[in-house]
Every structure is written in structure tokens, then in C-alpha cells.
User: Which sequence fits this backbone?
């Protein structure tokens, strides 16, 4: 994929990503541990249908699709990866390329803190 990313948008998302990474670290996260990381996109039925059809080829699994009270459609995707800064920056870059390519709005990522303990 080679869709153009707005540098200001990337900077904004990366600033938000760093806050999430900081919060994960404060909760004992071991960033190198691979875990499910979910991302979400908002958009029209048509745009989300196209993205859902392409999700697997883009390296994601479709998790859910929701419509909120004001009618906004959101598609939730997931992939297994680490949550270190480089991995998350690459994820954000991919998601902003998807945003540009598919005419959807990237709405961020999330995951649980992984400490490596079994309890």
C-alpha cells in the first residue's frame, strides 16, 4: 500500500500513541510480548465493507462491527504483534495508509498490558 499519509496526522497519532505506551509501561507491560492489538475505523457502509473484505490481505482479522446511538459505523480489526514503540509506529503508519486508501477514519488502537506472568 502506498497511500499518502498527512505528516501532521501522523504526528498527532504518534503523540497519542506515546501516551498509551506510557500508560502500558506504568502498568508493567513488557512491550516485546506479542499479543492481540485491536484497531478501529469509522466510515460508511460501503467503505467499511471494502475494508472488511481486504482485512485479511492487510494482515488483520475482523473482530466486530458496531453502530453507535448516533448511527456512526465502526469496524474493529485485530492482529497479533508486540507493543514496543517501533511496532506501534508501524501499526499506526499502516492504519493511516488504510484510512487514506479506503476512505475511512482511523480511530486508534488498544491492547492489554502483558506482564509475562501467568496470573
Assistant:
Amino acid at each position: 500500500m502506498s497511500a499518502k499519509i498527512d505528516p501532521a496526522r501522523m504526528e498527532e497519532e504518534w503523540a497519542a500513541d506515546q501516551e498509551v505506551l506510557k500508560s502500558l509501561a506504568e502498568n508493567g507491560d513488557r512491550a516485546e510480548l506479542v499479543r492481540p492489538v485491536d484497531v478501529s475505523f469509522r466510515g460508511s457502509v460501503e467503505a467499511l465493507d471494502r475494508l472488511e473484505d481486504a482485512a485479511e490481505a492487510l494482515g488483520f482479522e475482523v473482530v466486530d462491527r458496531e453502530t453507535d446511538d448516533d448511527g456512526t459505523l465502526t469496524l474493529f480489526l485485530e492482529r497479533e504483534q508486540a507493543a514496543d514503540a517501533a511496532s506501534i509506529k508501524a501499526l499506526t503508519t499502516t492504519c493511516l495508509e488504510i484510512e487514506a486508501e479506503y476512505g475511512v477514519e482511523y480511530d486508534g488502537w488498544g491492547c492489554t498490558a502483558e506482564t509475562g506472568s501467568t496470573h
User: Anything to note?
Assistant: The two ends are 40 Å apart (CA to CA). The longest helix spans residues 7-26. The helical segments are 7-26, 45-54, 85-102.
